[in-house]
Every structure is written in C-alpha cells, then in structure tokens.
Design goal:
RNA-binding; seven-stranded mixed β-sheet; 3 domains; alpha/beta; elongated; Rossmann fold; 27 strands; single chain; Ribosomal Protein L25, Chain P; 564 residues; 13 helices
Length: 564
Amino acid sequence: MNKTTENSGEATKSKNFLEMIIDNDIQKGKNEGRVHTRFPPEPNGYLHIGHAKSICLNFGLAEKYNGKCNLRFDDTNPSKEEEEYVNSIMEDVKWLGFDWEDRLFYASDYFDQLYEWAVKLIKDGKAYVDDQSADLISEQRGVPTRPGIDSPFRNRSVEENLGLFERMKAGEFPNGTHVLRAKIDMASPNMHMRDPVLYRIMHSKHHRTGDKWCIYPMYDFAHGQSDYLEGITHSICTLEFEIHRPLYDWFLDQLIDTDYRPRQHEFARLNLSYTVMSKRKLLELVTEKYVSGWDDPRMPTISGLRRRGYTPEAIRNFADRVGVAKRENVIDVGLLEFSVREHLNKVAPRIFAVLDPLKVIITNYPEGKTEDLILENNPEDPEGGNRVVPFSREILIERDDFMEDPPNKFFRLGPGREVRLKGAYIIKCEDYKKDENGNVTELYCTYDPETKSGSGEMRKVKGTLHWVSEAESVDAEIRIYDRLFMNESPDDLEEGGDFKSNLNPESLKIVKGKIEPSVKNAKPMDKFQFQRLGYYCVDLDSSATKLIFNRTVTLKDTWAKMNK
RNA sequence: UGACCCAUGGUGUAAUGGUAACACAUCUGAUUUUGGUUCAGACGUUUAAGGUUCGAGUCCUUAUGGGUCAACCA
C-alpha cells in the first residue's frame, strides 16, 4: 500500500527491504551515512533483462539516496573474459540511461593490492600454498553434511609459503600445480570456509593487464576487497552469494582495520516466463545458431530487446514494477510486454501497414483519382501532428478483415457488410472474386462519398479497418517475432532433457507487407504503431532500398482472445 | 544426516502488533473512426499447527514446502 509522508501529504512509494536497511544504516550513522553501490558484471557475455533489474536497483538506490554507483568489471578470469563484452556492457548501461561518470573500474585495477594482501595473509599464517591437484583438494573438502580434512601442506612455514607464492607469481609452475588457500576451517558447515582457494595459476593473457600476471585471484578474494577499495557501502548481489558473505566478511576482518566497512546484501534474481536467463544457455543459443546473435530480437538480452524495439523507459518501468525481495520469483513476460506497450502507446506514431494484403476495388470511385487524406500521427499525443495518406480506387486491406460467411460478432467486411476505412470513407462489399482454389482474390466495394472522415456528424458503422493505396504503398519485409520458447518454464525438463527442445519453431515469421508511403525515409530503430496490429521498429539491417521492420509486440487483441 | 535463506490472490510486490492493498493477468460494462487507448466495476490472498497478546500476515516454537552451498567460475 502506498503510504503518505507525514509532512507533505504527497504519495510516496512503499520501501523495499534494501531501502529499509539503508534507512536504518543512515539513521545509525554507519559509514558516515554514505550510500555507494556498484554494478559488477563479469565481461563474459552480454547483459540480459535480469542484469537490467540489478542495474536499475544499484544506480536507482544511489540516485535516491544522493549517493554514487560505480561500474566495475569483475575480470578475474582471463580465460573467459573479452573486450567485446566490456564494450557491449558499457553500451547497454548507458542506453538504459545510467551514468557511472568517472567511476569506471576493473577488479584487475586492484591486482597489485590484492597480491600484497595475499602476502600479508601468508605472513600472518592465514594462507598457504597447496601443491595438490584440484581433484584431491575437492575430495578433501568433504561434503556439506560431513567435514573435510586438512591438506598435508596446511602447516608449511611462512617462509616456504612466501617462497612458493613468489615462484607461482614468477611463472615457474604450470597451470594447476599450486594454489594459494586461506587457512580457515576444514570442518565448517559452510563449504566456502573450508580453506577456499585465493589464487590459481593461469598462464593466460588478460584483456587489460596483458601478460603481467600468471596468477589470478578468485572471485571471493577479489570482490569484497574491491568494494572496500572503492568505498562501496552497500554491495548488492543475488541470493546465491548469500553463503559467501561470511567469507566476504572474513577477508575484510583479516585485512583491514577501519571503521568503514562495505556490507553485502542479497536479493532474488529476476526470472521471466517463456525464456531462459543463464548466460551459459544464452551463449549456447548464439554459438549453435538458434538465434542470429546476442542481439537477436528474440533474446532476453538488453541488446536483443533494444533491437526488438523496446525502449529504456519501458525496461526501467518494468524493473520498478517487479520490485525487489528475497523470494524466488518468475515474472510473467506479459508484464514486460505491458510495459513496452504502455510507453510506445504514448510515443509511437501510428501508420497503416498491411501484412497480408487483399485487394479491394472501389467500383464507384473515379479511375485515376488520388485524394490526400490528413491523418493524426498519434491520438495520445496532442503535439504529434498529422501526416498525409493517399487514397485511391484500388486499395489493399488485411486478408483477415474479410470473411465470406462471417459470424455476427465479426465487425469487419463480408458480403453486403459495411465498414469504415480509417481516415477515409465507409465502404460496402458488393461482390468478390475467388481463384480456382477457392481463395478470395479481390473485393468489389462501393464507397459513400458523404461519409468522408472529418465531415461532421454521420452514421456509424461497427468496424474500422486500416488500409493502403496499392499504387503508392511501399514494400517492406516484416519480421514477426514471437516468444522464443513454447514452454512457460523452458528449464523445467525431464531428467536429461535439453531446454532447446522447448524452442518455439514459430518464433520468427518473415512476411512481405505493404506500407503507407509516409514511412519511406524511416531510419533504423524508428518506432511505429502499425494501426490495429502492434508496435514495430525499423531493424538495423533496414535500408532505403529495402525496408525491414521488427514486430516489438502486438496490440492487445480482444477479438483474438474471444476466438481462442 | 549439516549450514544458511525464503514462504501473502493466477503472477509479482506491499501492509509502526490494529479494516490484508497496489500492479499485471482474468472477467463485466461504458467510451472509442485502432476489437488499441481511456474509464468504471468484478474476481481472487496470509503454507499448517501450537504459543504470546485485548488484538498476529507481522513476534516465539514446531512442522511442511521451496531454494542455495561440495569449480583452481562469477
């Protein structure tokens, strides 16, 4: 429920659990009442709608509390990370409308400091070099219900550890032969506290530090300390890191001695129906060519949604509406679609496009005559202006706007029935022609010259159709996108099943449509409402010689619903 | 034979211990030169059992259900 503020009486949104924590921290004067967050992606894939939730949360919180939010690439694993991803991530965050100002950081900026801290831990007897294989270490770690056992190398001398760690750094050992481990507690019920690995040997070129290092810190040894170095106060991450928090705190306890402390808080990640969200699965769709790329309009990536015609406003409103909590959730993709319709309804100019044309000849309209009709660009936008649409004797309408034997509830064209051509005249279907296969090929209608749009009070008809004048219309390729998966939860699988078996074979249909001429000079990413059909945007591949539109989302269609 | 987290309509998210609400979805109706939009309304909710209290979605206990953790990934 929305509360009212005591003094202003202004409606204010109720707070989520993170805001309550922050309020409390500020009240207690924690970290001088500062609020500083960060968005910490690993540059190993493209950002998706789930990241958008996190971005909106972190930057939004900073904004709300007059704080700051950093962009920090968590680049501690050079074998998976690439420059391409860094660039796409920066582009996506900017496009969403957020600004990290001069606070662009990389965990790799802190490799020197992290190394020193590792040395300190060794000197303090809190870390040791283990010469065992990954398999052996894993075996000794035990299982959650049974304690692990100590490594035989756990009690090496400080000098020996220092020497070995130095040699690891110097590149004397091949990958996998040694790791640096924290000395914590092999019997801890929390597996992450059973002497976690701090550094591993990885002879890989790093996208920023090049060949300077051949040992790289693990996530746990880098994240909290990076937060600390940046002055982060609230380090917000997803639920699966909850169990890492004791380790996050443990490192800080060993290494620093100030009143200032970052604190990790966890929230539930976003899940969306009819799609998958794991980077691994998205990567699989890309590399195995089930989609055209990370920015395929069917992908839940930010770049995919952008190409599909989503707007930053729509995504931010969506992120707002889904809320933040600690409970596992699956958001109905319908909410995302609602958000984009809501925004596009206000800003997208309306045009006529016929996707499956049926020719109509208006028999009593003069041959060779063309009228320029004036139509409103957007009834929702008083400043939207008008456009000119040509009308003539031979026009095209949508094939499903005619039925030979229509039911009563069908408000469109049928033998003897009348409809209004939007912005033009009322026409009546007098006759129609079929080919040898029984397909309707042409409609013969008459128009009533007294019913021209805008000429005052007149009789009403039940249906209104969109149309284009055949001679002036322009060709366009229309890419009709639908949900990528048929199944609400593509991840719900039988044992051994593959999520790709739930792919929707009809997620993309390409048709040749006819569009009113005002659209000739449309530029990539321009957005329109194809009246009565849906929202469409000009694709990146579109050109002056070949127009291509992507369907962003359909309009709500109560007629289609009635027929289900 | 473990630790930690979570549990409110179909889906999400709210509710100083004091009338369980908001959005989406669904269904009615009105308006409409988009079967769009807008407007009005309806439907439907506290996992269970105990306890504390004048009063419990909220606090306590237990149970049940769900999730996370056993990469030299993040």
